[in-house]
Amino acid sequence: MRCARCGLRMVQQNAGGGRLLIVSERLTLEDDRLHLPDWVRAPLYLGHDARYFAALESSKRVNGNLEMVVSAIDPNLWDDIWRIEADTENSPGNALILFGLLEARGINVLAAESSVNTFSHNHSTTIIMSAAAYSSGEDLTQADRLKNAYPQLNELRSEIIAYLGDQLVFRPDGRPVLKVNHMRAYRKLSDDLRSGARLVLNRSGETLDNGSARLTPRAREHLSKAAGLEGLQYSPAVDTKDRLIRIIFYGQLQPRKHHVQIAVKAEMDGALRTVFELVYSAGGNVIRNNVRPCPPRIAQTFQRPSSVRAPYLDELQYKTIDLTFDLPGVTDEDLALTGLDAALGAEARTWPAGIVVLKKSWTETT
After folding, report:
1. Would you report the helix, strand and coil content of the chain in percent, each value rounded to 5?
2. How far apart are CA 242 and CA 245, in angstroms?
3. What is the pTM of this model?
4. Residues 325, 365: Cα–Cα separation, whole Å
5. Which of 43, 40, 47 is nearest to 9 (CA)?
6. Which end of the chain has fewer CB atoms surrounding its CB within 10 Å, N or C?
7. Cβ distance 311 to 302 under 8 Å?
8. 136-163: per-residue pLDDT in tens?
9. Could you give the CA distance from residue 42 to residue 278 in angstroms, rounded to a whole number?
10. What distance in Å separates the CA atoms of residue 354 and residue 318, rounded to the nearest whole number?
11. What span, in angstroms and rounded, lies between the C-alpha atoms of 307 and 170?
12. Residue 358: how many other CB atoms lie within 10 Å
């Protein structure tokens, strides 16, 4: 699951709403510096020397791991962070109308990006904002919104529709392409801070040192007690939708994890289902999966049975599946893995099942 060029460990798309998770390879802590690769920092607009805030879990999880979150947003604002997503006609003045309205309502725009989208006559805008100073009759004050488990800004949304008018893009059913959603991940972090489940490490913010975050004395002391600093490993991941970097510090005792990479015929009905079914039948719980087009350099190495000379790539396109899984509740893991190995081998020998096992590692993966 690692890109040979940049060390990228995993890219996974959540089909439910444009969320992209980018996970770096596991690293070893050195000189109290947490290296954050460019592709992890980019969605948060964190340059090599940008200001950031960090919060660390106050107690270990069941598996012994701890999580630190890194954000470009001040923790004092985490309670009331919102995302606006809007599609408008690509015409002058829309940005002026939208940002002018938000400014007039006391909205603090924290980050925004926009561009012409796939349909060249439309313009897509995403805004990350704090509503701490915003209040209205229907949307209430911040203090009253925080009493609601699922707050809404319906009045603000209605105002945006009224101000932009027919400049908004409308779906065939008449609904505007406009979302105003509460970023619940930040609300959950804020709740954790209040309950003591997390502690803020730098309330005034720190600056990155050439793309690395330095452990504060408080963080160093906490990690030393909870996990030990000698050989401590960590892995940073960025959630592009929630604009958060999550850094997992791995405890000393880790459950065994296993990895397999498989190529399947892209047009073969049931091939994906077969792979997941075999893992499930062995008692496997998939922790991470990555399905992507198979690189030609790998596909070119596949050969048909000796009776056929042409390489697979002549007629067929493949995709690869990377699976990392564990075996919770399985008493004899070695027996389960032997059975899975045999089942995969049987599928690989069946043509045209179209399953090729590229590599496997029945050990703890990093």
Report:
1. 25, 35, 40
2. 9
3. 0.73
4. 9
5. 40
6. C
7. yes
8. 999 999 999 999 989 999 999 999 999 9
9. 38
10. 9
11. 58
12. 16
